[in-house]
Amino acid sequence: MKRKDYISWDDYFMGISLLSGKRSKDPSTTVGACIVDKDNRIVSIGYNGFVNGCSDEDFPWGREGEFLETKYPFVVHAEQNAILNARGKSLEGCTIYVNLFPCHDCTKNIIQSGIKRVVYLEDKYKDTDSIKASKMMLDKAKVEYVKLKPQIESITLNFNIEK
C-alpha cells in the first residue's frame, strides 16, 4: 500500500521555491522561484540576489536612502534569476512558483519567456501600482495567476540521516 502523506505537486514546487529563497542574503526580503514544465519537471530555479561577478559585500542591502545607496539598482529578483538560469531552455507553457507575487518588471520577463501560469503564496504589495500593472499585463497576455492554498503547513528537512 502506498504512502498517503505525500505532498502535492504545488506544495512540492512551492517548497523548492521557498528553499531556494533561503539562499538569498537580502536581510529584509527572501524570495525564491521555481519554473516547472508541463511534465512536472523543474526547468530552473532562482532567488533574489546580486548579479554574477558582483560581491554581496561590495553593494548595499538597505531599503532606504539615495537610490545608489540601496539594494534596488543592484538586486536581480528571483523570477528574473530563474528565467536567466534556464540558459536558453524553452519556458513556453511553463509554470513559475514564487512565494511573493511578481513585480511589473518580473512580470514582463515572465510573459516574454512564454510562462503561462504563476503560482504565488503571498500578495502583500497588492495595492501598489507595480502589482496592479503586473495583473493588468498578466490578464491581457492570458497568463493565469493563482494564489496557492497549501495542503500542508510546513515541511521539515532533517540533515541528520542517522536518526
What is the topological layout?
Layout: H1 9-21, E1 32-36, E2 42-47, E3 49-50, E4 75-76, H2 78-85, E5 95-100, H3 104-113, E6 117-122, H4 129-140, E7 144-147
Parallel strand pairs: 5-6, 6-7
Antiparallel strand pairs: 1-2, 1-5, 3-4
Helix pairs in contact: 3-4
3D structure, described in words:
- The chain is an alpha/beta fold and 163 residues long.
- 26% of the residues lie in helices and 19% in strands.
- Strands 2-1-5-6-7 form a five-stranded mixed β-sheet, sandwiched between helices. The protein has a two-stranded antiparallel sheet with strand order 3-4.
- Helix 3 packs parallel to helix 4.
- It is globular and about 60 Å long.
- It starts with 8 loop residues before the first helix and ends in a 16-residue tail after the last strand.
- The model has no long low-confidence stretch (mean pLDDT 94).
Oligomer: single chain
Mass-distribution shape: globular
Q: SSE string, helix = H, strand = E? A: HEEEEHEHEHE
**In what range is the share of β-strand residues?**
15-25%
- End-to-end C-alpha gap: 25 Å
Please supply descriptive tags for the structure shown above.
163 residues; alpha/beta; 5-stranded mixed beta sheet; 4 helices; 19% strand; globular
Structure summarized in a few sentences:
With 163 residues, the chain is of the alpha/beta class. 26% of the residues lie in helices and 19% in strands.
